[in-house]
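In response to the reviewer comment on reproducibility (Comment 2.3), we provide here a single inverse folding case reported in full, input and output, so that an independent group could reproduce the run without further information from us. The structure tokens appear first.
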């Protein structure tokens, strides 16, 4: 039976508003600037089978991979009311160790239950430190054991009671336990908010009606995606792109993709598109390896962006798309690979190479390459104001790639990151740091009929001895242009000592700074589009 389209639209917005309210609860109650200010978190609502039915307007790299975390939680436990699962293990549903995910079942009936939840809610947040060799847990490691505290799916709450022993174990292995406890509490509050709102909606409309609407949204999303894919010309579209290196060696790392478009013409249930990463380089020694969840997330993001804004972001969107990510490669790394940078850097390059392939099929829909890096900066040490350890993490925006009919936006987080900047006032209040310069990197966008967006210059002075780590890319090859447009400027980094001597730095490094030293990051501009006349 066909669903009433008006009712379907109402329920689409109901589910979305629940995910958004979860995010608001997390943001308002979090302790760290990384979550309060940068909004490095995501929330989503899932049906009883663990399929996502609504996502907040949060971080693409989180949202597309979160279903694997929910699946890991469901497969690991027979959950009861009041239970909540915590995990960050990249090889069991996570992405990288700083991203801790909480999953809670939502039971609608009081008293005894069948052992199967009607819905699930999940919140994920990037924690500014989860232990490991480097402050901020984003350093140049060679295996995951060096990167931080690894959490398989475990129950942080049982029947509504927090497992204090488990929490104590986690907090004893991080540099900033009070901040971590506060952020975890905010995630718990977000899940409670989502569960309560779902119960209220089901009480108002009836559980069966709400569940039927969730099922219909999955089907509707799949239908819309299949309709779009049928309009892409049939054929095989190939592309390749590179990461500069893994931070251990100087060897560039190739990502290759073949997008095979059938359009679903053979069968209404067969894959309409196959995204095949065969030919991509093997996993590497450094920490830019991506697990399969990241690759699926990047593919979800790209194809979701090709649809209209009002299309429901559900699991149904990926049903017509098959992703082939060979095991042991940079896009499907296996243990004990280091993966901190795969989530933030390799995810961006997966987007780039996929867009480059699709530009051959639908050139009027694809922009030039954006900055292609999140410019992950971590600073850690001891705050002289309190005598306590601190760990600060931020990503720094760059230029957006120019579009077929518009110039790129300057100084913006693009693609797999949807975060904000950390305001200078918040940064200087919370940490012994001072922002000395923050502005546009003029002229860094690629030339073209439509110019690429400019990157950013950000310079931070440390007011205490500290260790600084940068995980960034696009230092060897600038973001590519399309249609004859020029490449964006490559990124740069440098250290400026207290005596005003300076030295250039690579895109991936860890460095000790003394009080009064400064770190300066210049982010890439976006590629240009079209030839200049």
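Designed residues, in position order:
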């Amino acid at each position: 039976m066909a669903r009433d389209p008006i009712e379907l639209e109402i329920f689409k917005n109901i589910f979305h508003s629940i995910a958004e309210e979860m995010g608001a609860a997390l943001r308002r109650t979090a302790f760290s600037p990384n979550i309060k200010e940068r909004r490095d978190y995501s929330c989503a609502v899932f049906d009883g089978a663990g399929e996502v039915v609504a996502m907040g307007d949060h971080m693409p790299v989180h949202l597309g991979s979160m279903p694997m975390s929910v699946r890991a939680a469901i497969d690991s436990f027979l959950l009861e009311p009041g239970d909540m699962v915590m995990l960050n293990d990249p090889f069991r549903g996570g992405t990288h160790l700083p991203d801790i995910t909480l999953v809670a079942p939502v039971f609608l009936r009081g008293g005894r239950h069948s052992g199967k939840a009607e819905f699930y809610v999940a919140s994920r947040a990037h924690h500014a430190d989860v232990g490991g060799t480097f402050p901020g847990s984003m350093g140049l490691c060679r295996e995951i054991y060096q990167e931080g505290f690894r959490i398989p799916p475990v129950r942080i709450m049982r029947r509504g009671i927090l497992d204090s022993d488990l929490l104590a174990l986690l907090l004893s292995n991080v540099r900033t336990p009070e901040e971590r406890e506060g952020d975890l509490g905010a995630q718990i509050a977000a899940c409670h908010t989502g569960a309560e709102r779902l119960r209220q909606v089901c009480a108002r409309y009836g559980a069966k009606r709400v569940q039927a609407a969730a099922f219909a949204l999955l089907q509707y999303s799949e239908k819309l995606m299949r309709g779009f894919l049928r309009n892409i010309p049939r054929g095989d579209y190939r592309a390749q792109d590179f990461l500069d290196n893994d931070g251990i060696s100087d060897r560039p790392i190739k990502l290759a993709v073949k997008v095979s478009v059938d359009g679903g013409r053979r069968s209404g249930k067969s894959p309409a598109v196959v995204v095949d990463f065969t030919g991509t380089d093997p996993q590497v020694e450094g920490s830019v390896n991506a697990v399969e969840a990241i690759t699926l997330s990047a593919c979800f993001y790209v194809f979701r962006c090709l649809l209209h804004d009002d299309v429901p972001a559900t699991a149904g969107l990926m049903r017509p798309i098959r992703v082939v990510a060979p095991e042991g490669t940079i896009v499907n790394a296996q243990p004990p690979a280091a993966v901190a940078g795969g989530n933030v850097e390799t995810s961006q390059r997966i987007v780039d190479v996929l867009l480059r392939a699709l530009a051959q099929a639908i050139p009027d829909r694809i922009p030039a390459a954006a900055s292609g890096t999140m410019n992950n900066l971590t600073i850690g040490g001891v705050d002289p104001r309190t005598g306590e350890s601190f760990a600060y993490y931020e990503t720094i925006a760059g230029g957006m790639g120019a579009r077929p009919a518009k110039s790129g936006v300057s100084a913006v987080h693009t693609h797999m990151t949807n975060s904000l900047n950390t305001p200078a006032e918040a940064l200087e209040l919370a940490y012994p740091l001072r922002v000395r310069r923050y502005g546009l990197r003029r002229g860094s966008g690629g030339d073209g009929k439509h110019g690429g967006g400019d990157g950013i210059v950000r310079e931070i002075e440390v007011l205490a001895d500290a260790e600084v780590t940068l995980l960034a890319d696009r230092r060897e090859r600038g973001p590519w242009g399309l249609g004859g447009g020029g490449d964006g400027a490559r990124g740069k980094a440098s250290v400026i000592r207290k005596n005003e001597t300076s030295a250039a730095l690579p895109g991936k490094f860890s460095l000790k700074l003394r009080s009064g030293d400064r770190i300066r990051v210049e982010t890439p501009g976006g590629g240009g589009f079209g030839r200049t006349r």
